[in-house]
Amino acid sequence: MKILRRGLIGLLLAANIALLVFILKGIKEHPQGIKAENVTIVAAPDQTEAQVHPDFIKEEFVLVLPEGKNIAVGKKIKDNGFSDVYGANRANDGKTDGASYWEGKKEYPNTLTVDLETAAKIHTIRIALNPQTIWGKRMQTIGVNISPDGENFTELVKEKQYTFDPEEGNQIQIPFDEVETRFVQLVFTENSGANGGQVAEFEIYSK
Fold first, then answer.
1. Cβ atoms of residues 114 and 92 within 8 Å
2. CA separation (Å) from 122 to 90, 166, 172?
3. Rounded CA separation 93/100 (Å)
4. Strand pairing partners for 79?
């Protein structure tokens, strides 16, 4: 029985080797029955850069500022509390990079108020965060109030949730019918990216 079993194993092994040799030989040999005149050679197009399907190409964001001039930069500004060293004066210094931003205290609502020093006609507010991608996408709920004296405020824009996305400049614009006022106040009640409201630059536009 042992001799028979060994013989059977040897026979199977020889058959497998023969099959492998046949396959390898077939791979090396040219295909039969294909004539040169029936073969079309197609040249590959020159490619100097990576090709991307149009569906995956993201349109580059182009920032379009509101009409007129930002009259808030450098004006008096105050808050009702801030976190760490990120005080109100960082929110209208004309910078959006590095640590130049305001962050409200960890207790809502947070307010950020600019004194324009004299009554002015305004039509749009722009709120910007640092545009770098490290400042990931986040949502903030913001309302806008105005006042002639800094004491008695009325609602100009009802609070709403806004999306700040670094792929869209990490900024939002709040347009409204032109109104004359001296004090403009932002009211924050939510921020998905921090424990308080955040603003790198609070801009107020006048024509």
1. yes
2. 22, 26, 16
3. 8
4. 112
* Fold of the 69-206 domain: Jelly Rolls (2.60.120)
pLDDT tens-digit series, residues 179-194: 999 999 999 999 999 9
Structure tokens at 127: 């709120």
Read off the pTM: 0.73
Query: What DSSP state is assigned to residue 104?
Result: B
Q: What is the DSSP string of 16-50?
A: HHHHHHHHHHHHHSPPTT--GGG----PPPP-SS-
3-class DSSP state of 127: strand
Q: Beta-carbon neighbour count of residue 181 at 10 Å?
A: 19
d(CA 97, CA 88) in angstroms, rounded, equals 15
Nearest to residue 181, comparing CAs of 159, 161, 155?
A: 155
Are 92 and 74 within 8 A, CB to CB?
Answer: yes
Phi, psi of 5 (to 5 degrees): -65, -45
Please tell me the distance from the alpha carbon of residue 130 to that of residue 120, in angstroms, as a whole number: 28
Number of Cβ atoms within 10 Å of the Cβ of 182: 16
Q: Which residue has tokens 């210094």?
A: 93
Domain ranges of the chain: 2-29, 69-206
Residue 148 is encoded by which pair of tokens? 């002639």
Distance, CA of 133 to CA of 68 (rounded, Å)? 28
With cut-offs at 50, 70 and 90, classify the pLDDT of residue 4.
Answer: very low
Which residues have CB under 8 Å from 50's CB, separation 6+?
Answer: none
Token pair listed for 106: 């960890």
Length of the chain equals: 207
